[in-house]
Amino acid sequence: MVGGRKVECTSIGYLLQTLLSLRAHSLNEEDEALTMAGIISYLTRAAARRIYAPLVAGNYITTPTRTVQRAIPICLLAKTGSPVQLSTSAYLQGTRHGKDHMIVESPRGELKLNYVWLRHHCRCDECYDHGMIQRKLDAHFIDRDITSTHSSVDEHGVLRVSWSDAHVSSFDIDWLRKCTDTAKWSAEKIEPCLWNGTLIKDQPPPQIDYRECVDDDSALKTLYGCLVRYGFAFVTGVPADLEGFRILTERIGVVQHTQHGEMYYISNDFIEQFDAAFTNVKIGLHNDQCYNSHSLGLQSFHKVSHSGEGGENFFVDGFLCAENLRRKDEDAFDLLTKLPIPYFYKQPREYWRMTDTAIKLNPFTGKVDSVRYNPLDVAPINTIPQDEIGLFYDA
Question: Which of 24, 92, 136, 359 has its Cβ near the most Cβ atoms within 10 Å?
């Protein structure tokens, strides 16, 4: 039966002509070659014995490299006049195997899956804790030569794999396709905006009301969108005290503890001034706390009171600066992704130090992931040889 049409044939030649119609069932050249080779081999052997019999039992045909399902049956009329069923590899979905991987074939296209990766992603109760949403299986204990001893895909799109370590796994193919879609993970859900002063004046980001942000998830979502798109956000109507500020920041995320505490006041009225931030000296553009192992992710400022002049905050898009440098001087940009810059914070009872590059790139996308630079906190630069230090200053 080809395409729902019963085929009765008494010669190999006629059968081969009929098999050409299998192209209508989307066989690629490799599949067609395997199908033809299997049929010819079968008929050659069968003709020598003057018998016709099913090529395989059930709905499967196995070749050295593949197992296929949902075979289109071809009905042959034997010389005795009685028809018998013959299965071919014209299929809707199935698997084929390589040295270290399998390829799942389905109506949505091929899906290549590394054996170790697939075994590592087993979601059975033995390998995965669904309550904790954590793996139980440690990849270090998976045999790097593990293979599939049998695999099949059912009509519901579930891949079942029997492994050489005697384990059996089941996977939803759509889930596997999402997990292996590298384009999905590299795509930005909200495209960051690289801005300058002119753009921000022409297209200012929205300002979010404090009470709405605290009470309404949609307002909080708007705030998150501003942070991702612009790198900053403005909240209006915040109570002029530390408690109101705490409610807002804890609504946004987890407050981290630093050497100054979780939340603290900054004022040039303090008698003990242990940082330039506590003075009335103008401070240039910088990132705070570069001397920590992780520079600040989100930093919140809240003006509680103000008298006199000054106290303005200046912002710049460090990502735009980095991309402008990459466009104008790629060698300088490359240097700042590699040269280690030491930072330190030193007080009578404290000493903090961290060495890192000025620019970090996302290892997946190659885009700028972070900028870390504070000219006030740069320690004696003993991390760059003197014959290279000039390149650092140039960059």
Answer: 359
